[in-house]
Amino acid sequence: MLPISYSMGNVVARPGRSFVMIVVVALVVVACSLFLGLLSSLHRTVAMTGDPMNLVVLRKGSDNDGSSQITRLAYDSVRYLEGIATGPGGQRRVSPELVVQPFFWTKEGGRENVLVRGVEPAALDVHGDVKIVEGRMFRPRLNEILIGKALRGRYRGAEIGQRIEFGRNQWRVVGVFESDGSSFESEVWVDAQDLANDARRINPFSGVRLRAASEGDLQGLKARIDADPRFALEASRETDYYAKQAETAGSLEFLVVAIAILAGTGAGFGAANTMYASVQARTAEIGTLRALGFPRSAILLSFELESLLLSAGGFALGALLALGLAEVLRRVLGGVSFGARTFTTNLVTLSIAPRDLALSFALSLAIGLFGGLGPAWRAARLRPIEALRKA
Amino acid sequence: MSEAYATGAASPLIRLDHVSRWYTRGVDEVHALEDCSLEIPAGRFVAFMGPSGSGKSTLLNLVSGIDRPSAGEVWVAGQLLNELSEDELAAWRARHVGLIFQFFNLVPVLSARDNVALPLLLTDLPRAERQQRAEIALRVVGLEHRVGHSPRTLSGGEQQRVAIARALVSDPDLIVADEPTGDLDARNAEATLGLLRQLKEEFGKTVVMVTHDPRALRFVDQVFHLDKGILLEGEAERRAHEALVLAGGAAPASAGGAAPAASAAGRGA
Amino acid sequence: MSYLGLVLANLRRNRLRSLLTGGAIALAVLLVCILLTMPAGLDALLSRLSNNTRISVVNKAGLVYSMPYAFARKIRALPGVEDAVGQVWFGGAFEDDGKVTFPNFAVEVDHIETVYPDYGISPQGLADFRRYRDGMIVGRETMKKYGWKLGDRVTLRSTVWPANLDLRIVAEIPNDRSPIAWINREYLDQALKAKGRSLGILGIVWVKVTDPKEVNSVMLRIQELTRNSEAETSTQTEKSFFSAFFGSLEGFVTILMVVTVLVSLCIVFIAGNTASMAVRERAGEIAVLKAIGFRRGSIFSMLIAETVMLSFTAGAAGVGLARLLTELLRNAAAGSPQLGPLGGFIVNQAVVVQGLLLSLAIGVVAGVVPAFGAARKPVAQTLREVF
Predict the structure, then answer these.
(1) A255 shares a domain with A216
(2) Which residues 45-64 of B have a C-beta within 8 angstroms of A?
(3) What tens digit of pLDDT does each residue of A355-391 get?
(4) Using a CB-CB distance cutoff of 8 angstroms, which residues of chain A are in contact with residue C17?
């Protein structure tokens, strides 16, 4: 009932005090947004990875490519099954793959495990999102490799035309591939046989990936593969497989909640302090308004509005800072790596999505709402006569 | 309204019936008002006068509905104020009372026009009409050229005039002023008192004022004298009081002690 | 009235404000402590390992590349080597979980005692491990996680070998932060032979060097030994090994520290605002004190003492809360395989010290400007303004 201009006018009239509250809220917004961004970037990378129509076939009991091994016979038992999609040239969309995690050395001398995937040309038919954006596909028996976009520049020799040393050999980078920001971009692809030779593997493959022709086919294939008594194999939908891989959720989400609650409440206390001081300074004014006949609810709403305006201002500042800071971190850190269960480097680019900002906005409003509640209540409860007496 | 004044038979606008007000401050119990009874007809310009601590401000607060009596009844414009709740009192004040304070009490972050329009926010009037009425009120007090100014850019006298316009804008029956000239220089004080007189003469408002400004005696219709929470009844006492006031308002400071043995009862004039 | 009493009385002046400020500081320090447990967990692990005389030997190509079994014997024969234990990743999953939740290796049981004397495993336990083929030694962190006790029987299903092994817990590694488990290599070999395979390889060899000064020369000797063989090795001290292992989490830790700084800045603002409000309100009193004769230095120390006291007490409360909370939370959120020791959320001594220092620093930084300003303001000016 009191005009909005009253609340706004008071925000502007005391720039020092308003500034403090705005900065406090802004800092909390930045902290929260960064972490939310990290979480959502991770989820996005995982969500991007994998095709819902693909099946990942591994040895029963292995929870990831790297620890699985299958025989050539097992591969043969799968590749001719009915229900597998075919490509434009009539070829079956089946990709046998060998996964190894050798050491790669970063430019600073650090050592990381990188996922190297030995594939046959059919891989590009199965992993539809993977596209070679620079250079060309490798040729077999020449120790040529493709590197995912995220790895470029991170390791010694990770550039087209240069050589990277891993395993027992040196390998020439002939191309770079992208895949919509998914985890594949943290991988190195190489000819399966070349890799098997280098890693002295008896069994040539870790597993098989295949594309089903339809959802019904997918279910049928899964059932048949799981039930085959000759080879202990297990098939899972590719998207499910990757979802299971990236299970940091517990710890990270806990941290985000901790930050939101603890920092948010702290900021709320700070906001309350600011608003209490405001109420104290304007006791006579509040008394006048009450004397004039404004009901308590009008006073309460007006002060809450003021608090909300300040915290919204804090959000605006914080959002800008967060986006800027994220950009800086992106440049300085490159990808942030999260070890997948095998401690393989899985690089995630920190970026803050609109949804993350929306959540931070909600937090800033909560700070304003709850921080301002006590003071607004006190202001509303002022009896006109007390207020005027203090004048 | 002037008819009511002439006959004196119509019911008074304000009636206090054996009203007392006491409150605790720390460990002491302060008796601000002791068994006051009075009547004020509509359309009259009255002043409550007395030394500091005499209870005049308390009396004013009771009349304007800002405070409640500890005992007795307060009737204003036919409404028994005692039986209204806090929120009902607020709504009642918005409709029936215009308030003027010593320190003007304008909202510094609003313009003069918005300050004057404040009481109208409590009505259903659309914005355009609220603004218009505010401007009319400001014209009455002679500030139509200052409507957009912030109180910070107005002189003391101008601020008080804005406050008077605000008191006027919702067309209340009763205008209440607490030491309206207390913070003004001689010229502005005279102008303010004249303006208040104008409200009674031209608009038929009932104006009740607390003051210890001797100049006020020339403008008001009636004076109620208070001392130590008691309304002074006797002619002699009131004359003596008046003399003191004229002499410069240097009244003996009362320390809120015991009231005189003879407590005045009966109705005031 | 003592100096301290004066400071306390001033804090009580506006109880609500002191409480709100103190509350904000406590919560923020609590948060910072939780965040700091992550890098602190890693630092603690690494510093524990810094004086060790253990060396890791892996295939230069990577952890998943194997070395021939004979390497262990050859390494043991080198001068300067007290003993060496060959290990292979078993990758066992505990039935109910279906995924690997703690590191477990198949090891040469006869050499565990000499290579890990600092692990504090009971001699009886070690003897049992040597004697019983199906014996298993488990670190206390994993014991607690699953509520296992000595003598329990546990089945582990390997995710890399075609082997499900029934095991009996014969000993415990008495360290709350050790999740590791060891089983008998022979037992695994036996199970593989039944399927027509054998365990002829090693994944990693842990070597104990007799004399700490010899560590570097032993590392060189091992590398020479394997230089032109089929599996060239990479040798590192135990500390470097784990440092590299978790090195890739650096980016994440940086973000953590950035957030810590932001939160700290936030509290400084809150505390500073409170301090300046308090000072402004008491301008008159301070002027009177100065007029009476208190020197500027004493005024300054008195004012800053207030902020520091509030900040330190509140911060200490936050640290205490952090210890309590993480005890409760350890089971809920920790042990994430993704974050390794970072996921432990254990408030150790380092974190406590850091938390307390931060509280102190906040008090000083927040209070210094208002206190200085108040102490410096000329007496006459203040008296004029206020009275």
Answers:
(1) no
(2) 61, 64
(3) 999 999 999 999 999 999 999 999 999 888 776 765 4
(4) 273, 276-277
Chains A and C share 3 or more Cβ pairs within 8 Å: yes
- Domain that includes residue A256, residue range: 4-47+247-390
Query: Which residues 256-285 in chain A show a CB within 8 A of chain B?
Result: 284-285
Rounded Cα distance, A375 and A363, in Å: 19
For the segment A125-168, what is each residue's pLDDT rounded down to a tens digit? 999 889 999 999 999 999 999 999 989 988 999 999 999 999 88
Is A107 an interface residue toward C (CB < 8 Å)?
Answer: no
Query: B259 CB near a chain A CB, below 8 Å?
Result: no
A272 and A151 part of one domain: no
Question: Of B105, B120, B170, B179, which to mutate for an interface test with A (greatest number of A Cβ within 10 Å)?
Answer: B105
Contact C20 A23 (CB under 8 A): no
Model confidence band, residue C329 (pLDDT cutoffs 50, 70, 90): low
Say if residue A345 is in the same domain as residue A381. yes
Residue B268 CB partners (closer than 8 Å, separation 6+) = B37, B38, B39, B224, B231, B233
Count of Cβ atoms closer than 10 Å to residue C45 Cβ: 18
A295 has a chain B CB within 8 A of its CB: yes
Q: Is residue A341 predicted with pLDDT exceeding 70? A: no
ipTM surpassing 0.85: no
- Cβ of A262 within 8 Å of Cβ of C28? The answer is yes
Examine residue A53 and state whether it is found in any structural domain, yes or no.
no
A224 in the same domain as A78: yes
Asked whether the beta carbons of C277 and C11 are under 8 A apart, the reply is no
- Domain shared by A33 and A79, yes or no: no
Q: Is residue A238 part of a domain?
A: no
Number of folded domains that form chain A: 2
Mean pLDDT of B177-187: 88
Closest-CA residue of A relative to B93 is: A293
pTM of whole model > 0.90? no
The overall average pLDDT reported for chain B is 82
Q: What is the pLDDT of residue C177?
A: 72
DSSP-derived secondary structure for C237-267: EHHHHHHHHHHTTHHHHHHHHHHHHHHHHHH
Confidence of residue A246 (pLDDT cuts 50, 70, 90): low
Do A101 and A216 sit in the same domain of this protein? yes
Together in a domain, A305 and A185 = no
pLDDT digits (tens, 9 = 90+) for B58-114: 899 899 888 889 999 999 988 899 888 877 888 888 889 998 888 878 888 888 998
**Backbone φ, ψ for residue A25 (5° rounding):** -65, -40
* Chain C positions in Cβ-Cβ contact with residue A100 (cut-off 8 Å): 62, 64-65
Domains observed in chain B: 43-66+83-246 (3.40.50.300)
Based on the domain organization, do A289 and A349 belong to the same domain? yes
pLDDT at A306 over 70: yes
Asked whether B82 and B70 are in contact (CB, 8 A), the reply is no
Mean pLDDT within C268-279: 90
- Which residue among A198, A231, A264 closes a domain? A231
Is there a contact between B109 and A3 if contact means CB atoms under 8 Å apart?
A: no
Which residues from C are below 8 Å from A349, CB to CB?
none
The stretches of chain A forming alpha helices (DSSP H) are 4-13, 15-48, 72-79, 123-126, 192-198, 215-227, 238-245, 249-258, 264-281, 283-292, 296-333, 354-381, 384-390
CB C161 within 8 A of CB A203: no
Q: Please indicate whether, in this complex, the C-beta atoms of A384 and B109 are within 8 angstroms of each other.
A: no
**CB-defined contacts A:C, below 8 A:** 198
Cα-Cα end-to-end distance for chain B: 19
In terms of Cβ atoms closer than 10 Å to its own Cβ (0-12, 13-18, 19+), residue A187 is buried
Residue C311 sits at the chain A interface (C-beta within 8 Å): no
What average pLDDT does chain A have?
88
